[in-house]
């Protein structure tokens, strides 16, 4: 599958389930105190680089974007799925949402003070992920922070799994940290959360800073 067909397939898959997904995920953060703590730490660190904008890349229906706004950030969302963006705009009319791809952002060099990718890099074929880190580096200001949330491989290699919406990959957290390091990021911290009763996989959270 080519890169363009992969992106189109992912967008189409999320378009098809957008309404159900938005309903399912609406209040998810309320029951995830460790995840909220990671987002709060990111927000505090992002504010240290100034009052510039922060982007949630792969924002879906906008629930995490809105949470980051509530944490005091000047934040907007970007997603491949036009239907997801429509839902995000309806749910959060005070926030900015745009259709776009994480690997080719319509942003100036150094425009962002922070990036959150909340379970969105999971859909990127592993061989293509370094190019996304290059784009993250391009749009971040010096000292800007990047937060990645993903499904962790629990001692195994990078591997595809049967995600409910579109092809996705579980990553060893050390491998993701290595890709970030190669792209010029410095690790700030990481958090691994064991799956809850209704979850299948360990959750990984990696926080890095542009050196």
UniProtKB/TrEMBL annotation:
One of its GO terms (biological process) is methylation. It holds the Pfam family Methyltransf_25. GO terms for molecular function: methyltransferase activity. Residues 54-144 form the Methyltransferase domain. InterPro entries: Methyltransf_25, Methyltransf_Superfamily, SAM-dependent_MTases_sf. Keywords: Methyltransferase, Transferase. Its EC number is 2.1.-.-. It comes from the Bacteria. This is Class I SAM-dependent methyltransferase. It comes from Saccharopolyspora rosea. The lineage of its organism: Bacteria, Bacillati, Actinomycetota, Actinomycetes, Pseudonocardiales.
